[in-house]
Amino acid sequence: MLVLTATVQRLARLFTHRPLEYLQLRSGYSHQALARAHFLLLLLAVLVTFFLLPAAVFSTLEETWSYLDAFYFCFISLCTIGLGDYVPGEQPGQKLRALYKVSVTVYLLLGLMAVLLVLQTFHKAADLHGLTDLLLLPADQHSDQEPILESEGTPEELAPGAKPPPASAQLNTGSRANYSSISR
């Protein structure tokens, strides 16, 4: 998976970043509009190339599969759900079975990279449009935090001239808080 991710990051530069920069310089459109159009074109290309066309090929090569069964296999496999209820190349007497299995493996690897590329492009577009800010929690972290244990004060907070408790007091079991002392 690490190799797939690294490969897709390199492909993202080639298929996402460079075309957007080139189109922005040449056309003068805003980066957001170009990113939206680019994402839709990339999504359409991946849908056709890795879902619709392979489903037609699988429904032709696998005698017992309908087009819907083949599309289901493509979707389940490339979304990494992989239920295993449809497995290509398992029919008895299939011609060139070993080559067919290797071809399916290559298709799955390329398809996984394409789906990951679409997801990364969507994430970048969502960042560009500010959609991730809608889904993230606000940055105010102190409003919901309460101290779990009531402290008796740190040595800096003690009254002048007062002695801090001895270090051995922290080791006594009676001085430690237990679960029943935590306010709910």
From TrEMBL:
<feature type="compositionally biased region" description="Polar residues">
    <location>
        <begin position="169"/>
        <end position="184"/>
    </location>
</feature>
<dbReference type="InterPro" id="IPR003280">
    <property type="entry name" value="2pore_dom_K_chnl"/>
</dbReference>
<keyword id="KW-1133">Transmembrane helix</keyword>
<dbReference type="InterPro" id="IPR005408">
    <property type="entry name" value="2pore_dom_K_chnl_TWIK"/>
</dbReference>
<feature type="transmembrane region" description="Helical">
    <location>
        <begin position="39"/>
        <end position="58"/>
    </location>
</feature>
<keyword id="KW-0472">Membrane</keyword>
<dbReference type="GO" id="GO:0030322">
    <property type="term" value="P:stabilization of membrane potential"/>
</dbReference>
<feature type="domain" description="Potassium channel">
    <location>
        <begin position="47"/>
        <end position="124"/>
    </location>
</feature>
<dbReference type="InterPro" id="IPR005409">
    <property type="entry name" value="2pore_dom_K_chnl_TWIK2"/>
</dbReference>
<keyword id="KW-0812">Transmembrane</keyword>
<dbReference type="GO" id="GO:0005886">
    <property type="term" value="C:plasma membrane"/>
</dbReference>
<feature type="region of interest" description="Disordered">
    <location>
        <begin position="146"/>
        <end position="184"/>
    </location>
</feature>
<dbReference type="Pfam" id="PF07885">
    <property type="entry name" value="Ion_trans_2"/>
</dbReference>
<feature type="transmembrane region" description="Helical">
    <location>
        <begin position="70"/>
        <end position="87"/>
    </location>
</feature>
<keyword id="KW-0630">Potassium</keyword>
<keyword id="KW-0406">Ion transport</keyword>
<keyword id="KW-0407">Ion channel</keyword>
<dbReference type="GO" id="GO:0015271">
    <property type="term" value="F:outward rectifier potassium channel activity"/>
</dbReference>
<keyword id="KW-0813">Transport</keyword>
<protein>
    <submittedName>
        <fullName>Potassium channel subfamily K member 6-like</fullName>
    </submittedName>
</protein>
<feature type="transmembrane region" description="Helical">
    <location>
        <begin position="99"/>
        <end position="119"/>
    </location>
</feature>
<dbReference type="GO" id="GO:0022841">
    <property type="term" value="F:potassium ion leak channel activity"/>
</dbReference>
<dbReference type="InterPro" id="IPR013099">
    <property type="entry name" value="K_chnl_dom"/>
</dbReference>
